[in-house]
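To assess whether the prediction recovers the assembly geometry, we first specified each molecular entity separately, as shown.
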Amino acid sequence: KQEVTQIPAALSVPEGENLVLNCSFTDSAIYNLQWFRQDPGKGLTSLLLIQSSQREQTSGRLNASLDKSSGRSTLYIAASQPGDSATYLCAVRRSSGAGSYQLTFGKGTKLSVIP
Amino acid sequence: SAVISQKPSRDICQRGTSLTIQCQVDSQVTMMFWYRQQPGQSLTLIATANQGSEATYESGFVIDKFPISRPNLTFSTLTVSNMSPEDSSIYLCSVPQGNYGYTFGSGTRLTVV
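The predicted structure of the complete assembly is given in tokenized form:
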């Protein structure tokens, strides 16, 4: 059974800092990995999607990397802003077999960027 | 990517009552997914809703408690029945997006009192 762990559970940084959020998964047989942002009490906004054959994806100040063999992904946020404050979730999709469309989520990292 | 309109955004309900959550997608999709996010927990898949067939429920979720309708390729509802405080959660619908990722609705924050 796939398990996804996100460390740290919470992170507080001053505005302007660069930061890294970590995601690890136990089963390397994944189809892709997706990073989401969730504001309090709200739905999920997709940030970056990395296919299993890719090493990284970039969007603006965000960069996500994937090391499938070691079961790890990182989300790098450059020059953090107060508007980046949210919970960041990673989710992996199984590569094949029954339930391959399912996502397995981590519990998220709650980020606070202090002005 | 598809855009999902989910309603209501939040509700406070009395125990023993039912609440129906709606998701409308701006394009036709074969599969729609319903998730639950309990306080402090990760998202858990409740069921997969396919148009024209009964929903497929995950272990621990049953149709009597979470009936789902999927009348066409752009719409689905999830009902939370006979609610108890333990049902207080955020409920989200999701559809596949381009490149095999997923798009989520804005969520329904349910509080049962």
